[in-house]
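Repro:
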Amino acid sequence: MQFVPYNQLATMPNIIVDGSGTDHTVLTLSHWPKSRSPLELRGDTSTAIVFNYLDTPKLHIEAEAVSNNHFDEDGLVGIFALLQPVVAQRHRDLLVDVAQAGDFGVFERRHAARIAFVLSAYADPESSPLPAGLFNRPYADLASELYAQTLDVLPRLITGVEDYRRLWESEDAKLTASEELINRGLITIEEQTDLDLAVVRLPEELPRQRVHRFTQRRLAECHPFALHNKTTCSRLLLLQGRRAELQYRYESWVQFASRRPAPRVDLSELASELSLEETTGGRWVFDGVDQITPKLHVEGSGQTSVPIDMIVKRIEHHLRTGRSAWDPYD
């Protein structure tokens, strides 16, 4: 078996790790919605599913190729485990931790977080050691080249991530700073377990900074790895001065196995209601339950005119009374 770019699979019998299958896919090892991966292999990450597959010889099949339709940490580590199972099994716990860091922003080992930061740096045109022209190519070509390069790099990251310090130290420092703010009580997290909701209050003067999620650039006041490692709640309500934003975490988009996050409620109606009351010139928007990490937030204005306490109560009401609008499970 070999890695073959997704757009070059043609009629090759293939295994897809972490994404969606093609017409010639013989097995999908993915936590994606409705992936039809074997139920007995289920895991939180696609990497965990791959390891469960390696542990179950009766389900092994013949295929010429393994691939994925997008590049991220979970896809990379899962494909690596399928291609180099002996090496992968020796470092199984670390590799699953890397996949969790990439997908869910949670980690047990700082080593895993740093590997995720390096892989994100490879995929970021501003920090990547790869040729700049690569990032002008179509996404399918870019993803394929990222896989080709990082499948070679990953074994070195497992045993020598310190050698890649220049690619992870800046974001690692941002993570440390966010962890310290939480530990000092300057960022507070109040959990409402019955709603699977964490209300996060941020210092008003705390600026946004560039971070990575899913190997993508994001802006956040608190590094998501620091926040997600402190609460398992799948709904996060971030409050900062006159700004409020509700986020659904990725755990509720996929077929999460270790627990069932609260189902996603469509907040489009609430967004419309809040927009009618908004006087800043901004408009409340809900990204949609089918997006991987959708938000309810104000577009066109950094702040809201609607009282924050009222927003909190109305979000709580909609989460408590709204019906499930997203079911990723087969």
